[in-house]
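> forwarded from #structure-qc
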């Protein structure tokens, strides 16, 4: 038997013994590590598989050295008495060495699959993938906030723009509304969407080219010089 199978068989024996001590042992037998160790040694010495029957036989054979909560009646812990007790029935058949090895093999396969799955879920590549996705989401949220702020700033900047009269004090509302309308028609698009950060910068640059005496003809020339094409406005 290979070292791997020996380890698997030992693990299986320990599991069966743990189940027996917690659920199938005589009620007056103390559930302790010392008792479990004595039973384990008995199985090893006698080359017994950890079946329910062999575990009860070990208890019967070791009753004088095991620790009990109440001193047992030998008849109550004898193999025959235990086998007749409904709470601890014998299994339909004893596990053979081949059965034990098959169970150990299946257990090892399940453990290998579980470990592999955990490695995949916690792999470095998966970690960096999640980190990159989180950073992209955070960047998109920040950019959306910047775009919203720039949009509000652009609308406020256009609303504050006015032109003075040529022939006296006061605001020339005709020219003012005309130029405001042209400014509202300006949009710098990136990937088919208005980029308000670039749009704000473009309108701000044009606004500083305008003086209080700038005529509409001069204004249209400023737009043309900067490559700005304004769609025809229905209401001027």
């Amino acid at each position: 038997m290979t070292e791997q199978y020996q380890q698997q068989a030992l693990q299986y024996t320990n599991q069966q013994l743990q189940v027996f001590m917690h659920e199938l042992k005589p009620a007056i037998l103390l559930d302790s590590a010392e008792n479990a160790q004595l039973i384990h040694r008995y199985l090893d010495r006698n080359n017994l598989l950890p079946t329910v029957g062999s575990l009860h036989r070990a208890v019967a054979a070791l009753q004088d050295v095991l620790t009990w909560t109440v001193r047992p009646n030998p008849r109550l812990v004898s193999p025959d008495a235990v086998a007749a007790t409904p709470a601890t029935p014998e299994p339909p058949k004893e596990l053979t060495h081949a059965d034990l090895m098959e169970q150990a093999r299946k257990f090892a396969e399940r453990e290998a699959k579980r470990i592999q799955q955990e490695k995949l879920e916690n792999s470095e590549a998966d970690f960096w993938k999640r980190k990159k996705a989180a950073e992209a989401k955070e960047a998109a949220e920040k950019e959306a906030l910047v775009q919203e702020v720039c949009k509000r700033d652009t609308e406020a900047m256009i609303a504050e723009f006015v032109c003075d009269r040529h022939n006296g004090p006061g605001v020339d509302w005709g020219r003012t509304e005309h130029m405001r309308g042209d400014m509202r028609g300006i949009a710098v698009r990136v990937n088919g969407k208005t980029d308000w950060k670039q749009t704000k910068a473009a309108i701000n640059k044009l606004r500083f080219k305008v003086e209080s005496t700038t005529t509409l003809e001069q204004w249209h020339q400023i737009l043309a010089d900067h490559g700005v094409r304004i769609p025809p406005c229905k209401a001027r």
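QC bot note: The first helix runs from residue 3 to 24. The chain is about 60% helix and 0% strand.
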